[in-house]
Amino acid sequence: MNMECLLPDTIPDSPAFHTVAVTTVRHWNDHLFSFSVERPGSFRFRSGEFVMLGLPQDGGKPLLRAYSIASPAWADELDFLSIKVPGGPLTSRLKSVRPGDQLYLGRKPTGTLVADALLGGKRLFLLSTGTGLAPFLSIARDPEIYSRFEQVVVVHSVRRVSDLAYHDQQTALWADDPLIHEEAAVQFYYVPTVTREPFHTTERIGTLVENGGLFPNTLDGPRRFDPEQDRIMLCGSMAMIRETSAMLEKLGFVEGSNSRPGTYVIERAFVD
Ligand SMILES: Cc1cc2nc3c(=O)[nH]c(=O)nc-3n(C[C@H](O)[C@H](O)[C@H](O)COP(=O)(O)OP(=O)(O)OC[C@H]3O[C@@H](n4cnc5c(N)ncnc54)[C@H](O)[C@@H]3O)c2cc1C
Ligand SMILES: NC(=O)c1ccc[n+]([C@@H]2O[C@H](COP(=O)([O-])OP(=O)(O)OC[C@H]3O[C@@H](n4cnc5c(N)ncnc54)[C@H](OP(=O)(O)O)[C@@H]3O)[C@@H](O)[C@H]2O)c1
């Protein structure tokens, strides 16, 4: 037993879930951390999807929550980016995981933040707040996305500088990534914004659309959204999704789904 966090060293098998071992853990700050787990041989998913993840609890039924997979579909391990909710049923325990600890992993990943739910286009904008970055870490590291789109722009809005998970890797245009560093060097753009601490960019996403700050100078095309050539994914708080969706609909964007691809797609990063 891992006494510090009351996590069991091994967990009982469950037919509905894989049992996977944690391989690495990184704490970004007091309310945000990343971890990776081994990938079961039979586990397939599309970049951008989420899966149920959890721990055993008293009474036998696993305690599970939805988690976006933050690594791309080709990766050997599955990465996750997690909030630590004070008193949260899962994360108040999950925040203490260490390499070797075991977790439950659902067998059926799903979700709408997938390239299949978007029509073809030139520029792909991945707009996130908080842990909503997670699915975009998956998509932006998938080689296929650079074949489908000429330019890929990740926008990450957070309260504090230390909330900018993967800031260094994205600023370096994924230079250490063996599979996509060549494409990313010319096709990847990263727009971080920090709204409650001094930073070079401090506006919310909506303001950055209005003032043009969301469109890097070296990006091709207009410094505004264009439904003809732009495709957009949104992941974050419900308020951000609601407000940004309303703006996109006014501009003529149409929400897509797996069965009916459109020009933008949404997924909430958590349930309020
Ligand atoms: C489709 C989907 C994908 C998700 N992907 C992720 C992910 O990749 N990473 C992640 O950390 N969470 C993600 N979540 C949220 C996750 O399922 C849990 O809510 C979270 O792990 C907290 O679990 P908990 O049991 O500790 O608290 P809960 O009882 O689940 O949540 C308590 C409260 O904490 C707040 N909260 C929960 N999650 C977040 C969050 N991520 N950011 C800000 N506030 C939050 C909400 O106000 C919520 O009501 C996702 C949720 C959905 C629906
Ligand atoms: N991040 C922290 O430092 C911190 C610390 C302790 C506890 N928490 C708790 O953790 C939870 C999640 O916090 P979080 O920081 O991950 O998420 P968050 O509060 O949703 O903030 C993330 C980013 O989204 C922006 N945002 C919020 N509403 C928006 C909207 N309607 N349109 C566009 N952008 C919007 C925020 O800007 P604004 O800053 O302008 O709102 C911020 O840049 C909260 O319950 C919070 O109380 C967070």
UniProtKB/TrEMBL annotation:
UniProt keyword list: FAD, Flavoprotein, NADP, Nucleotide-binding, Oxidoreductase
GO biological process: cellular response to oxidative stress; heme catabolic process
Pfam families xref list: FAD_binding_6, NAD_binding_1
Cofactor(s) needed for function: FAD
Similarity comment text for this entry: Belongs to the ferredoxin--NADP reductase type 1 family.
Protein name in the entry: ferredoxin--NADP(+) reductase
Domain FAD-binding FR-type: residue ranges: 15-116
GO molecular function, one term: nucleotide binding
Gene3D superfamilies cross-referenced by the UniProt entry: Nucleotide-binding domain of ferredoxin-NADP reductase (FNR) module, Translation factors
Catalytic reactions of this protein: 2 reduced [2Fe-2S]-[ferredoxin] + NADP(+) + H(+) = 2 oxidized [2Fe-2S]-[ferredoxin] + NADPH
CDD domains from the UniProt entry: FNR1
Enzyme Commission designation: 1.18.1.2
